[in-house]
Amino acid sequence: MADRQEYERVAQEALPMLYRLAMGILRCDADARDAVQQALLKGWEKKENARPGKFRWYLTRIVINEARNIQRYRMRVFPTELPPAVVQMSPDYRELYDAIFALSEDLRLPLLLKYMQDLSEKEAAQALGIPVTTFKNRLHRARKALRKTLDREVTFE
């Protein structure tokens, strides 16, 4: 990452994707915004660590880490389960989103990274810190769980 203008351009393009990812993990608007803000700040501070052309992936990894940090903090402060945030979405997709958010995090994150964030399997596996074969296995299990939950065939492209 060469300069501030380039960083701002890449960060601005990635912002909606990073927010959706954080919401998928945290299910709370305020926490998701905090995770993205912290990720953007850390991304700027450590921009030299990102490989050329891979800064979007680098920010994705930071958002995942920040969201998990917020979850750990939440568990220390709030020992009970927090109610999920209401996400504004089309009523046509409400059932699908509810099914996705009902999945455990290890199944939900591969779906979010692959289909909502449009990362390749290799990039998504790297973002999660797991081998590509493990990522593919979790993605398959997540799709299978969604089909069972929705009681009909779900088509993924």
How would you characterize this protein structure?
The structure is a single chain. The protein is an all-alpha fold. The chain folds into 2 domains: 1-85, Rna Polymerase Sigma Factor, Chain: A (Orthogonal Bundle); 89-157, Winged helix-like DNA-binding domain superfamily/Winged helix DNA-binding domain (Arc Repressor Mutant, subunit A), CATH 1.10.10. The protein contains 7 helices and no strands. It has helices spanning 4-26, 29-45, 55-77, 94-102, 105-116, 121-128, 132-150. Helix 1 (4-26) crosses helix 3 (55-77) and helix 5 (105-116) crosses helix 7. Residues 79-83 have low confidence and may be disordered.
Order of helices and strands: HHHHHHH
Helix content: over 70%
Task: Provide the gyration radius in Å.
Answer: 16 Å
The CATH class of the largest domain is Mainly Alpha
- Can you say what the CATH homologous superfamily of the largest domain is? RNA polymerase sigma factor, region 2, helix turn helix motif
